[in-house]
Amino acid sequence: MTSISKIDKAVKLINSSFSAREENNCVLLEGNTSSYDEIILAGKTAVSKNHYGVLNNITLDGFKEEDDSPNITDYSLDNVQVDCLVIGGGVIGSAVLRELSKYKLKSVLIEKESDISTHASYKNAGVIDSGIDVYNHQYRSMYAVRGNMMFDKLASELEVPFERNGHLILLKNRFEKFFYSKVFVKSKKLLIPGVKLINRKTLLQIESEAPRWANYAIYLPSGGSIDPYKYTVALAENAVENGAIVSLNTKCLSMEVEDNLIKSVTTNRGTIYPKVVINATGVFADKIAEMANDRTFTIHPVKATNVVLDKKVSFIAKRTSFIKSPVTVIRDEYDTKRVGPIRGIRKLIKYNKKHKDNELSTIHTISGNVIIGPKKEETPIRYDYSPDIKIINNILDEQRKVSPKIKKSDVISYYSGTRAQTFEEDFVIRKGITTKNIIEAAGIEYPGLTASPAIALDVADFTIDYLKECGIDVKINKVFNPHHTSVKPIKDYPSTLRDKLIKSNPKYGIIVCKCEEISLGEIEDCMKSPIPVYNLDAIKRRIGASGGRCQGSFCLPLIQEAIARKKRTDIINIKKSSNDSIILYQKVEGIKHE
Amino acid sequence: MNKDVLIIGGGISGIYAAIEAASKSSNILLVENEKQLGGVLRRLPFNDFNVDSKKFTGKEYLDYLIQKINKTQVEIWTESYVSKITKEDSTFSVDIITREGIKSIKAKTIINATGYHEKTASQSFIPGSIIAGIFTSTAILNYVNLMGYLPTKKCVFYGSTDHALSAIHSLILNGTEVVGVFDEKNQPSCLDKNKEKILDRYNIPLFLSHTITNVFGKDRVEAIEVSEIVNGMIKEETRKIIECDALIVSQGFIPDNKLIEPLNAKMSLWTKGPIVDQNSMTSIDGIFVTGNSLMIHNDIDNMIINAKEVGLNASKYKPLERKLIEINFDENYLFVEPEAIDLSSNLSNINFFFRPSKSFNDKRIKVYLNKEEIFSKEYNPLNSTKMENLILDLKKCELTQESTIIFKIE
Questions:
Q1: What's the pLDDT tens digit per position in B373-408?
Q2: Which of A48, A102, B157, B175 is surrounded by the fewest CB atoms within 10 Å?
Q3: Does B148 touch chain A (CB under 8 A)?
Q4: Given this structure, which CATH class describes domain B322-410?
Q5: Helix axes A228-241, A536-543, angle to 10 degrees
Q6: Which CATH class is domain A490-573?
Q7: A250–chain B nearest CA distance, Å
């Protein structure tokens, strides 16, 4: 029996309307159902090593995807000829654009939202993973390990705050140490440096408030944290400084494919004629790949919900991020009884099956806030950003086992993002298969942020290879400048320097955001960036204003005023993010405007 | 530059504390982050105030206070932001950010009167992502009364605090339709007189035991879903969708003590402000707290009394060793303030503020010292929305550091 008929049989057991057949060396699933769980199960069942990937065409009854096209239509990009067209302004697209700006090419990035870094790269905790991956995802760990090594240099070039304080995997019982040998062997194979087992005493030196049940820990010194949006924005801005072009509010609507080549890409701002297209569209990657006739995978979005805690409880993860090992079972926070090895192992096998890849981490972020999460769930909606309050409570309950000191009132915010997972649960980084002039950077889920510089290198190499194959003479951009000046919070400056800055521009002495101590001058600096964005979320991303305790109740009006003044427009025209995210409707009559 | 008293925050409490301190010392500095003094008062031009036996609107009251403080020798710095306080031997070194540069001053004592911030939509556990159209009542007051812009035409309120009612008042005066006020609690969070004056007068329905179960809209709020809560559970059949363009959240306030937290001032679990003694001094010698950064007041008279006392105490402050004992209270109280007593300081006629955790009828407030009743008074009714006070003369009691004082409701 061939493997495809086995798969066909297996998916029919899930739902009799399902079927599987082979198409272009992929497994194509068809049918319809009213249960989304069945689709996920079928997709996971259909994974086979002999095929490129699973194409899911099973329809979910009554489900319609929302149209999220920008409400702007013009011809600013019509008939434009470009060398490289990057679709998607997340961390991958931005990193690729920066790599491409090292060559003398006309590279353009289009992003459908009103700013760079709005989706998965924004709803991100900023973890720089060590690359250790206990579930055998080949590309995910390979790119993460390579990417991790590149961050010291990148962060200093781009002036993005970055820390490498290590990560911890916490263990409870002595017998669980066998898990360390598994991690250790893996780390040697993947070339992850310095992995070691530490005892409680050493653990407390690293993380003084480590959970009391943690008697041992695996220390991964290469783990770190970065500000994900500042990093993404800095990549894109540096690319623009080196000659690349970024077009926001621009959505790819369709492609014209002829003789296995993309001829043109139609957007809401006109039709672009690229030589090569890079697909970095996150949760939409399968749709774009399909437009290009190069689809070999399916994205099934995984909604991940995180809880952000106030800085006053940052002591629970002062320096590192940590996670309970998948073999450690804590029954409740006060459980200190030792579990025998046999019972323990039996228990963990059962537990492992239930909780695979769904452990909560306690994440130390670069801003000092602690993030707890993620709690993952499957969703058919690509931008399912509505956190469920039940999930939030669930996270807090679970986390209390790890850090009993956390209270509900310590939560300052929470968010959900969607991860672009494929059924193979791995990255798809490759040249086009059926279509020649597309490069896929798809299925980028965790640890995509860590992997981004390494992915960008490979994608740029693939792109240059292709252009050279076409006989194009690709020259190095000799004036490429890797250094980028990011807007930095001046409260971190030494006070003599800060004083000097204020004396040169008194606006640095007018504090607008009281929670984060950010001045009017810094807010105006954000609008001098190479990709100027005149909305509130953009300012929040670039400088952190309104991201503190009061979440903007006091300062947002003032920031709006500052933007309006800079843009010489009425404050009513300043939005939260997109054109439709209106904040103010009209002037109040009778009350004098200050 | 040396100062006897530095007052941080030029709201109502800060102004009163400064005026009072100026009666004892001519070396007082008041620092305000905004362009003008006033704090919350700037945002409440239409509220009625009944102080110093005069009737004011918010705007008139602010003018009155500014006139009053201008007659004193208090030095006032506006648009100045206190960035850092460092404790030195007997003084505090303070960095203040101004448009002329960073100014460093030394202060003998500090009064923190930085007010509060409102719980945000996330802190109120609003479902869904925070899109445009979800505001706090603070933001509404800022937009409408400070900037003069209208952020909503038809809105729903979540929470019935007095602050929310002020925001409703401002919105209604500008033609916004307020569909209703929903509160998770089974009784309103506002004072009865405000409910009459605003909700009843403008016929705005108040739905108690209701919560927000969904928010609809991609870029801006388009509708919300509310549900009734019965016995702590959402009653499914009561889910209803209301079309509106904004959801305004007013779920309570948290005293703002960002500046003294890094000095490791002890914080109260109950008021969320710092733990203070009868002189409103925090666990750090020389730092006092008053106004809403001490605890959330809903009664302006009590707040003014406290601010004046603190101003006086700070100007008279001498560094002496304190003997602190804790004040205990049972679960019938939301809080009792102060939570500590300094035995080496004045013990006569100590003013205690308290709020019961729920409303009671026919109950007595009792205070015990080492299990012996030293105070008993009937308060009828005891309303959980209203802060009450009582005066205890502890001078005649023999207090030692081993004494236990406990507040009960019986």
A1: 888 888 888 888 788 888 988 888 888 888 899 999
A2: B175
A3: yes
A4: mainly beta
A5: 100
A6: mainly alpha
A7: 17
